[in-house]
Amino acid sequence: MFKPISLALIFALFSCANKENRTVKDTSIIIDEVNSEDQKLFNLIREKDSLLFQIGFNQIDTSQVVELTSTDFEFYHDKHGITETRSAFVDNINGIRELPFKTWRTLVDGSMKIFPLYKDNSQVLYGAIQNGIHDFYQQIEGEDARKTNTAKFTHLWIIENGDWKLKRVISYDHQVPK
User: Fold this and answer.
1) pLDDT in tens, 105-126
2) Which tens digits make up the pLDDT trace of 30-51?
3) Three-state SS for 93?
4) For residues 113 and 108, what is the distance between their CA atoms, to the nearest angstrom?
5) How many beta carbons lie within 10 A of that of residue 26, not counting itself?
């Protein structure tokens, strides 16, 4: 068995060797790939994303949000802090009803990537990481809609009791349009 320091040294030496001959393999799933299992996973996560945002967030259907999120859900936002529970997240979405404007989120076309997560030596799929970019809009009644910000996101989807659940969300790099 390797000692931690020995293992770190091996990794360091390996990463320095043959830098000019190394290539980095992109393990993300993009919609154009031909692997049917990867395509199924991409489509599944895209569908879950759509249900969460098109129905749960945009239409404020919190039953959909509860259905799609893990009981130990956490949300990390670079501007608003941490939402540590699913119930707090649902309360925040319910609070959208009280805003003096309509707000919604759209996924930026072509920005979504999926990274499958396996266990048991790559034999069992247990989850996926979803990365992408999304835009947020607001519209006051009688006025034109306006984009309020664009942000990057990372979602951790986990299979719990046979169902895909959103367990962790990181929303970051929020930029206000110029």
Assistant:
1) 999 999 999 999 999 988 899 9
2) 444 447 888 999 999 999 999 9
3) helix
4) 11
5) 9
